[in-house]
Amino acid sequence: MAEKTVESLSKALDCVQQLRTSVCDVFRYMTEGNSESGDDDTQRKQYVINLKETLNTVTRRLHDVEESVNKLSVPSGAFQLGNTGFLSLDPTLDMQVLYGRLLDSYKWTEKVRDYSAFAVPIWAQNGVKRSQQTALVRKRRMAQTSHCQPPQHVDAILKTIGGTFNGMQLSISRPYGTNSAVVQVDLDHVLKAVITFKGLLIEWVLIRGYDEPMLTEDGRVDLWTPSDYHVFRKVSENAQAAMVHYYGPLYPEFSLRSYLTWIYSYMKLFSEPCVKCGSRLLNAMPPTWRDLKTLQPYHEDCKS
Amino acid sequence: MCAAISAQEKLQAAMQHKIVPNQEYLLQGSVLDSSKDVLIHRLRGLADNVDEQVETFQDRERVLTLGPVSGQTLTLYVRQAMDVRPGMDQSDTPWTMRYIGQPELGDKSRPTVLRNSIDVGCTPNVLEFLSEMGFKQDYEFMCKGLMFRKGRMKILVYKVYKNKTADNWEPLSMSHVVELSVLAPQGHDAVAEDVRNFAEQLKPLVQLEKTDYRRL
Amino acid sequence: MIIMGFSTLQTFPLIEGLTGPQTLDVLHKRITALGARVSGQFVVDCETYFSAPSLLPGNSQRVLNVLHNTEEPASVFAILEGGAKQPVLVADTLLDALLPKMAVLYTSNKKQTRIESKGNRYEMGDFVVKLGSVTMSGSFKGILVEVCYLACVVPALCWEMVWEFMQSFLGSTVPSTLPPYIQSRQNATFSPTDTIQMYLEKFNEFRKQTVAR
Questions:
Q1: Does any domain span residue B61?
Q2: Buried-most residue among A105, C92, C110, C172 (CB within 10 A)?
Q3: Which CATH class is domain A2-71?
């Protein structure tokens, strides 16, 4: 008995799917039209004939759906959740809707449980988390120290990471206190960036062109003036988006290295074409976006 | 949207309206090294620009000539600032090219020397450029001293050094040259009066007068 | 120190059957269709002076070219040709006041005086395009197109991108290799004196054209 119900249910679902396909076909045919060539009159007649055919398929499928639905039996009785079924017998007006709502919320929570069971293995594939709490164990949270590292440690890490990139120069200064290092990045005649740190965490990034001044009038490093050039204003915005993406207080060295690798991929800002459209310019701009995982160049409008 | 006016037309218009400062009103004198300090004290009291420290300058000047062609020669003075401020490097210091015309003769009642002077700022390769053009260096000297300003007037107290051999600078005399000058466009003769009045205030210490260059 | 980005200069041949101003009109329509907007006018002009014969030993002659560019309004460029080197002097505008003093020593030839390129200046993003019509003593000589990319200062890094941009409105007249002047300097920082030297080269070509005719 149960298997028959399941079979007829699946047949009915198949019929519904076919109906939907044929309706889609009708609309597609109406928009795309007849691709055969020929003079106008015959074309129009052919178009009308084909359209009628598709509409006939739709009516047939609808008929199938109605048949299979009629074969299905109505589910027996009301759905009961054990003893809570007796709630429905309460004659008080206020309480009468209670049972219906109970059933709805039960169904909803069951669905949530099912979906989250599917989602957990997919999300668990990303090992780098921002927060620290594991689902079950509730130990005391490890104190996060990446925002208050001693300056020599920060300098040493920056030097090691900076040394691995050929063509990128880092120069560190501390005009705003010992915890916040200001690093000026010089990328081989292409661009200059100024990154402000708090310990080992990146707080602010600004990217400017190679010929723009990095110092204000009184000799301090200029952190705020945006670039004069459209392309570098766009790259600055993207750099700030990437800064949020690569933010990982639990693994500061790893996130810093990934971020600097991302910036290093801008070395060929003006010479690499966009991977999606193949050309170098779109709206007079070079590909200003670098994919956060693959580091490939895309135009602002080409990144999907 | 106005049409672009070429630079030459702009310069001609400026000269016509007499706003290009190309006349120099000048008075010169000298003071012995031993009395220089008294003079500087007085100037510090009179001048505008002394806050904490007096402005010093050190310039190396080369004199180049071109010609003679049909009896005419052209002399240019190329000046290079030698005192390097912190933060600047030597290749960024400004060079100027100066043309000084003959002093205007005739008006004995004018209190100062009046001569045409054009100062052009340029890139450091000016020496190479001028020697390619055919200019030859006559001589060079170095001036080291102090600068004061009063209104539009510039007061210089400096010592002249000469090099017999390369980079071996020796003072030329035992005194400092004192110069009072104003750069103004044509026709602003009232400036000469101001220069003379200021010179009066320095009278017992240094005698500033208009030098007759023909008599040198 | 402000560097102007990278510029490249090219003559544009007249379109078949159209006069100079009509060709400029066609280019204007093409470039405004791409999205550029007119941001003013520009003038680059050149005056030439020749040294007096008795000035230099061996009767060699030097040619002094004095150029102005509205892109650098406070500067005057002087380029000396004829000798072993070709130094470029950049000075402020009073240099023009100095030139009449040299009138006997360096004279201007009455036949070939002023040549200039004058026209509209267009801006599109970080690109600046100048379409100039070249005239000498009032007669039209040709069309010079200057394309400048402000954000990059090394020619080798962005040449292909600039070439793509130029092709989009100039068509196939754009050569795919760097102009010969830039080829030897493609990895060095570009400066406005390089632009001016390219203009001088083109002006000299235009001057030679009239002599040939």
A1: yes
A2: C92
A3: mainly alpha
